[in-house]
Structure formats: C-alpha cells, structure tokens
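User: My notes are a mess, but here's the protein and zinc ion's SMILES. Can you give me a structure?
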Amino acid sequence: MSRKGSKDERRPHRTDLYIDVPEICWPIVYSPDYNITFLGLEKLHPFDAGKWGKVVNFLKEEKLITDDTIVEAREATEEDLLVVHTRRYLNKLKWSFVVATITEIPPVFFLPNFLVQRKVLRPLRTQTGGTIMAGKLAIDRGWAINVGGGFHHCSSDKGGGFCAYADITLAIKFLFERVDGVSSATIIDLDAHQGGGSWYRNRFLHNSNFIVTWLVFCELFSDQQAKTSIKRKVELDWGTEDEEYLQKVEQHVEGALNEITPDIIVYNAGTDVLDGDRLGGLAISPQGIVKRDEAVFRAARLRKIPILMVTSGGYQKRTARIIADSILNLHNLGLIDQETVAQESGNSKVSPLSMLILSNITTKFTFKKIYRIEGYRKTISNCVHLVAD
Ligand SMILES: [Zn+2]
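Assistant: No problem, the inputs look usable. Here's the predicted complex:
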C-alpha cells in the first residue's frame, strides 16, 4: 500500500511493549495484575473488578489457552504513557482524590497515594500496556485480543468513567510512529457509551498524515462536541434488543469498512450493552453479544484487515462467561486461530500471515501487507513471566 503518513521525526523512545512474541503464543494478552483486589474495596464498586481473570480461567478450562500460550501484559511506563498523556495529567494522578473521581471508588480518596498507585493504577497501567502490545500483535498475526483495556472515556489530559489511561489512543499512536505501512485506523466502538472524553479531541488523531475514523454505537451521545467528530454514529433507543441491534451492527460495520479500508481496526467490544446492565440501557442477550463480535471479526477477517479487540465496559457477574464464550465462538468458526507469523529473512520485516477459514467458506486468505516494525525489539523465550518483579 502507499504510505500515507510519515513517521515522527523524533526517534521513538525505547519501550518494552513491542516485544517479539514466540510463535507458540496466541495473540491474547493478559496479566493477573489486571484484576483489582484490595481489602475488599473493589466490592464497593458496581463493577466486577476481577472479570478479566475469570475470562482467562474460562478459556483455560475450555483448553483454548494455557499459561504457556497466553501473552503476559507488561505495565506501561511513564515514558510510554507520555506518548499521549500530558505530564500534568500524570502528575494529577498522584492525588488520591483525583483517582477516586476517575475510578468512581469514593474510598480511594482516603488512601495514601502509594497504595492507590499499586492497587488501582498499576492494574490499569498493565491493561494499557496490554492494549499497546496487542496492537503490534494484531499487525503481526492479523488479530489480537487484550482481555482488558478499552478505556475510551480517557483523553490525554482527563480521565473519567473508570478510565485513567487512553489505551486505545496509545496503541494507535505507537503503531503510527513505529510501524511503517500503518497510517490509518478505524475504531469500532460498540460499548454502550460514547466514550466522549476520548479520541475525538486528541489532535494527533486529526493529523492529516494519518487517518482515523470512528464507528460508534451507543445508547446516548452524551458529548455533543465530540459527536461532531464521529464519522459514523448510530444512536440506539433505550432497551434496544438483539434483532435490531445486530442488523444495525452488520449494516454499519460493513458500510464503514466498504467506505475505507484501514490498516488496523480497533474494536472496543464493551459488554455493557447486555440486558440488565446498570449503566448501559440496552437489552442485548448474551447470544446477541456473541453474534455481534462474530459480525465484526467476520467483516475484518474477510477484508484481511488486522483487528485489535479490547473488552471495555460491562461488569456484571455473568459478563466474563459471555466474553469467554464469544472468544470460543470466534475460534470455533475459524475467525481466530493460532496460525503463526512467517518471519521473513532480515531482522526488521514481519510478514503477517494468518489463515482464515470461515465456517462456511473454505477459501484461505493470506495477509499480503508488509509492515516494518520500528523501535525497541526484544525476543523472549516464553509468553509468560514477562513482567519483572
Ligand atoms: Zn460503557
């Protein structure tokens, strides 16, 4: 493809997030550090703050992955975060009351900040690192899933709605700055909320060298200013059910991808669309969510567009089971697999080669794009234990 964007003239900083992952690993990223547990404090929040670990446990029970075949996320460092965030904003997180407001956990207000950093922000930084890592994996393998992440309410200088770091913006900016051949992205945001504070206002994403488009479904567009930046917006009525929802998802995902073929799709797969969600307002069934994810992956894989999925909002007790079921469904249909990447000769070219076998189509598709990965590279011997103690 023609290269639409030029890389940042400054050399990207050294990062541990763009590692080479052994072929044995699935491009599924997770760390036990994702889960927020602290003296039962997490129980004061309406969220199931351990859902990420439960998803992985279900996937292990179903023998899709093991500890040896999952990619362990690394925590994003301050330097990584500064790629998008202002130093002023990161400094503000050193005040516990700011974090209490962002995470909507009032008791955090009373905790010393070193505990807030360790018990609340570190999990969110690790999930953010996971999204950035999954971005590169999606390019390498054709698809990747971060079991956490999807903090679409956070912008470069403002957090909110349980989102302290702008992981999606970071993942895209890392790709734009470090991977030649990647200069356009489409964000498909199917969380129940708009994510108003997020990417829309980030000037870099409006840089003419790069193209970022958004498809946003939500129950209510809460941020009218941000709404004007969204290329394709679908406002859903309160209580929308499966049939109408799935018909619209299919129509608009296909429509958006027919309009523009991006170098990567970031799929914000919020499950707060689920019936009974206290914050969502929609009435989608568990099967509806599975079918929705299937429609998005099918559209991406048929077009050979790398897709990065993050799990975003949705924290009911049954949410983890639904996410796991959806991932298993994608695998059963051949929409995700463990096909490894053929490493070309030379040390800086990676040829994403992923074979797609659809449930009803036996044709195999091959990724043809050649990407050049820049920045720090490191080969590791195993998928796990990447996080240094
Ligand atoms: Zn949401």
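The first helix runs from residue 51 to 61.
User: Great, I'll file this with my notes.
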